[in-house]
Amino acid sequence: MIAETGHFALILALVTALVQFALPLYGAHRGERALMGAAAPAALAQFSLIVIAFLALMHAYVTTDFSLANVWENSHSAKPLLYKISGVWGNHEGSMVLWVLILALFGSGVALFGGNLPLELKSRVLAIQGSIGAAFLLFIVATSNPFLRLNPPPIEGNGLNPLLQDPALAFHPPFLYAGYVGLSISFSFAIAALIDGKVDAAWARWVRPWTLAAWMFLTIGIAMGSWWAYYELGWGGFWFWDPVENASFMPWLVAAALLHSAIVVEKRNALKIWTILLAILAFSLSLIGTFLVRSGVLTSVHAFAVDPARGVFILMILCVFIGGALTLFAWRAPMLKAGGLFAPMSREGGLVVNNLLLCTACAAVFIGTLYPLALETINGDKISVGPPYFNFTFGLIMLPLLLLVPAGPLLTWKRAEAWPVIQRLWMAALATFAIAMVILVATRRGPWLAPFGIALGFWLVLGALAELAERIALFKSSFPVSWSRLKGLPRSSLGMTFAHAGLGLAVIGIFAVTTWREEHIVAMKPGDHLSVAGYDVTFLGEAPMTGPNYTGDAGRFRVMAGNREVATLASEKRRFQPGGQETTEVGLLQAWSGDLYAVMGDRMNDGTRAMRIYFNPLISLIWLGTFIMFMGGVISLTDRRFRVGAPKTARRLQPAAAE
Amino acid sequence: MRNLFTAFILLVALASPLRAVQPDEILPDPALEERARALSTNLRCLVCQNQSIDDSNAPLARDLRILLRERLKAGDSDDQAVDFIVARYGDFVLLRPRFTPETWILWIGPFVLLLGAGALLYLRRKRPEETAEGELSNEERAALAQRLGTDQP
After folding, report:
1. What is the CATH number of domain B6-96?
2. Cβ contacts (< 8 Å) between B22 and chain A: which residues?
3. Which of A2, A215, A326, B15 is deepest in the core (most CB within 10 A)?
4. What does the alpha-carbon distance between residue A176 and residue A182 come to, in Å, rounded to a whole number?
5. Model confidence, pTM
6. In this predicted model, what pLDDT tens digit does every residue of A260-294 receive, in sequence order?
7. Which residues of chain B have a CB within 8 Å of the CB of A574?
């Protein structure tokens, strides 16, 4: 009964979404307030209905109701409660329900907090949100219904893939989807603005926090996925340029570009057409990502052709929304009035370069991800595009961007001089150079990439700090003056300092771990020991173990630093019921200098175990850096101007634009 | 396509999530072994999803690793050893695609795009002198003066 209620709620949500699309759009066209007024209640109703459907599905998972085909396929009675809950979105059907749930959540956010938006803009935005919701709800109901019953219900389920039974991965999809779907708001705003024929600073001020929120969720989602891959897959790597990873990375890159170009629209009323295009592209890439992951096209073109129903459906959604949006853009964009002028060497110019590089970096990832598919479709030739390609093209394009990041915020609006920027950055540049030299001398025989890459990271951190020091006049006036300036600094500016410095820390971590990682692959028997990066690691032996839904062996390692015992690490090999799939739990000792990473492998013929023991220097900086970037977003979101009403700010805007 | 991250899952389901190179495969000569490792990170495990033979635990990947090491021991250069494998398994085995007419767009595309878009932006930038932003027309002056309530703008 509860499942049927959920099923029914899902269908009602589809109808509501259609109403939310049609009435306000027509109302806004005809200028009828009553019809436009339907948008907000419809958005809230759609959200409530999807919540009911989602809870119904969750109920089925928590109570392990195997009369639902979806639960039977993806759950198991012995699974811990956390993974019964996360199992809701650990499969295709459920994850699509989560997708529309988050979509409707964002939509109702606009409905609730959009009181200060012009009614027509708000109605159109919600109408576009409604159309996206309707398309995906139709997709769920028609091809991916999670509420289909089985009769008779089986006794036991198939279980969730053990690799997904992990806390980081339990919450990875909700964050990632919040990011993907959050970009739908920027998309809807862009379409509404195209229909409206008007883009102004107030519009940009509305779009920015939503884009920022979506970007933050993507950042956390990607970082969680990467962290999961690092310690759950047991390969020691953190990024594999896998198409699934790329699918989430591309919207992240374009969202980052959009964040920056929206600043120009807001402050200088320029780059409007470009910003609209970026907003369309960002969400289009989210849709493409969804298509890539959901359709099966990644496994191979043939897998897609064997069971094409879902793939073709998403492909159609893709064509309608991306094609429709771009057509509308081509038709309406020339009508938007171009705004403020600027010299190539200016803050605006810097942000244009930022956009250019971020977008071509994204294009490199896009080409690399889709090229094998395209080539196979065209002439049947199969090629592989792997990490060496991405590291080369993406790296080469990102390099100038990273070099220029510290200079950007120091440029003045409209027209800038190089000399003041150099004056403000020479200390940071000198310190960076010194760091590079020290590393070069200390690791004379190491790879040349290490001192270079790590110095690049330091350059970003020091550059961000130099800009902050300049703003608060550190060392130029007394400390109390600087302190009060720091407190008076706009939150968005402080957020930028955090984000750029966090990026720098992540860059340091990435280069350190890829160039300096220490790796040992040895056969060990109990009592054997190995010296790794200053630690002495002894294999103590192994013991059988039992978990809630698995059995396995746990190998223990004693880690000594000098004569002091630092830790005992356990690496497990788990065999999950049912199916007997094996997973590996990594023994991990985290320290600032780096992670000691121990994996127990297979038993060899002579009774020893194949052990893999790595030292990953400074890898924590990657997660720390991403977290600081995320915090930069949080700080920026608390900026005063996002909290004050948009109409008020719109009126105040003319004088503000002159700053 | 049932599971959430099918590609990930496949990637791991086909090769259980344990690291690839086994202790008994490692060559006694460290220089040779280092060359083998560097080469094998660029060779694809054919039965896996986007995984190098260095990472994969699949039996075929192990065979390829051993084959590669045998070629190196026999005195092949890096290129010869890779060519040997490509001759048997095709270009699909290379994670770094070769620069052939078929992959020109792949390798050059991003940079052409960067230079093209950059050039376009630079050439089509608006120059202040081309527009009349600097000077106000007489009507605008009058309107401005009226709004400001002064005679002299």
Report:
1. 1.10.8.640
2. 521, 601-602, 604, 610
3. A215
4. 10
5. 0.89
6. 998 888 888 888 888 999 999 999 999 998 888 87
7. none
